[in-house]
Design brief:
The complex is a heterodimer of chains A (263) and B (393). In chain A, the strands form three sheets. Chain A has a five-stranded parallel sheet with strand order 4-12-5-6-8, covered by helices on one side. Chain A is of the alpha/beta class and 263 residues long. Chain A is built from seven helices and twelve strands. The longest helix of chain A is centred in the middle third of the chain and has 23 residues. In chain A, 41% of the residues are buried. Chain B is an alpha/beta fold and 393 residues long. Chain B has two domains: 130 residues, Aspartate Aminotransferase, domain 1; 238 residues, Type I PLP-dependent aspartate aminotransferase-like (Major domain) (Aspartate Aminotransferase, domain 2, 3-Layer(aba) Sandwich), CATH 3.40.640. Chain B is globular and about 80 Å long. Classes of the chains: A alpha/beta (263), B alpha/beta (393). Chains A and B meet through helix 1, strand 2, strand 3, helix 2 and strand 7 of A and helix 9, helix 11 and strand 14 of B. Strand 7 of chain A pairs parallel with strand 14 of chain B, so a sheet runs across the interface.
Chain lengths: 263, 393
Amino acid sequence: MKSTQYSEKTLDHFRNPRNVGVLEGNDVAVGRVGNPTCGDLMEVFIKVKNVDGVDIIEDAKFRTFGCGSAIATSSMTTEMVKGMSLDEALEITRDDVATELDGLPPIKMHCSNLAADALHEAIKNYQAAVEKEIELPEDVPSAPSCIIGREEFLDRGVYHSVIMDIDEFEDKRTLVLHTGDESIDMALELTSVTERVILLTPAEMIHTTEELAEELANSSVKVLTQSRLLEVRGEFEVERVLVKNLDEDEDYELHVDAVVIID
Amino acid sequence: MMDEVYLDYQSAKPVDPRVLELMRPYFTKHYGNPSALHSIGDRATEVLEKSREKISRFINADPGEIIFTSGATESNNMALIGYALRNKRKGNHIIISEIEHISIRNIAKYLEREGFKVTRVPVNLYGRLDIKKLERRITPETILISVGYANNEIGTIQSVSKIGKLAEERGIAFHTDAVAAEGLIPIDVKRDHIHLMSLSSNDLYGPKGVGVLYMKKKYRVNPLIIGGGQERGLRSGSENMPGIVGMGYAAEITQKEMKKESEKLEKYRDRLIKELLEIPDSYLNGHPTKRLPNNAHVRFEGLEGEALLLSFKDKGIAVSTGSACTSKTLEPSHTLIATGLTHEEAHGSLQLTPGRFTQDEDIDRILDATPEIVQRLREMSPIYKPKEKMISK
């Protein structure tokens, strides 16, 4: 079966997805699975109501970044669970979702797996929240000193100081670590000589002055949040970096030509 | 049902009706085998050599340097495996770029398994190979450099003549897979210092199932297909006469019309790029100017390419994407990753390649449809975050 040979029902759920959106409130839980790096990320929201001592899913919604079957399976899953008890919903398997869609191409079965997983995740989160309020740990701030390769590639693509010949960076993919407003200034200045400037921060958001925030938002700087630089790699000079996505707890390689770390 | 809009000429092209007309009698009336000594065979030989001449003129080669194959994949196999086997006494090192077509990538992997050493040279943010980075990777063992003339995905054109000159100075053979570039920009094997080159017929609006390996005089490869000794013993098997006639004529037509056709395609390309980049958070992939006249490659933040492709399919528009979900391996495009994109960015790419039969209305239709599709997919995406939301004052 070709990857695009979907059943009519799957195509219908892709074209007219049911229950797109988010839910909010104390009686809502969300399950988040997948990984944008692999091309799919799903969020399933459930709203739970206790009826005669049984927890019933009153409403369900989803948001999905993913291929056609990722969207269709999310849509179908949210349709299937409405009105079910949490115990019933926990028994929904990936095959059930695929069957409801009149089948999926084999290569796409993992998508239906994800939708069921997101649902189960949401249910578990709901049950955990009922038992006790869980506080998520804060992100640990960046520690640029423990980057592997930082010294090895010094002046061969790794730069430490602010004052430098900006023209040296012409057309270079430059990764700037967010270490304060100086680093934002640097990133913005670099956009005059290269189209690819990445500002990397382990935080969920970059906090800065109103002026810099506006300039940054309107610039071509690519902002990568919740990301930490682990290693600088290359054969003769900086060619790649290893980045950790803190949100997904996954490492990936990014091709860059220069790394700027202003301590 | 409205007519299909086809903007995926990079993946396959229709045969030009003029080419098909000329090919037709070679299936029934002119069925001769060039190897036969009777007059029907002689006439076939004449036609075979005429096609060879047409193709040699198209790339400024000599007819004796043209070997007919079953397509560009076979030509690539012959160039890399055939050359490596023939010259293994001189060295065992081969250099390719990080953005080669999958056919070259997999041949290189095969050669590694056979004991050759392969180095992959990085490219810059536009997908251009840096000559200095290439030069540093040359060793005394290097026997062959293979770099595509232009990239089949993002359309970036390489500094081919500089690479060829460097290879020549170092006594290394230079092969280029010219499939993405042929018929769109002038290729001159002498000017470009090319020693081995793969061409496909379909990319010139000729039939599929036929291609060419250009091999400069004094360069040698081991044949991979052994048999009756056709093509000077380099490629056995009875000649695919209708295909060869078709490819020869396709090259002749393309040579005459390329300048005008590429000007038309450039207008389409520039309009597509300009208007698609008006959509918020969209960016151009590939080089702003050193790109094929038919290639528009744009990425949209926060959405996934297969969903994009399916949405266009519903509107009767055929496009291509860099998304993993459309590939057999579920990996995102290695080319986009090599230019420095994150996986998420690579997933959200749209590749548009208009061609000979594209009309103004086709461009209108895709440009009309795109903003709405992008908006719809972004609305349901949990990762689409306009940049303002990542910054707090």
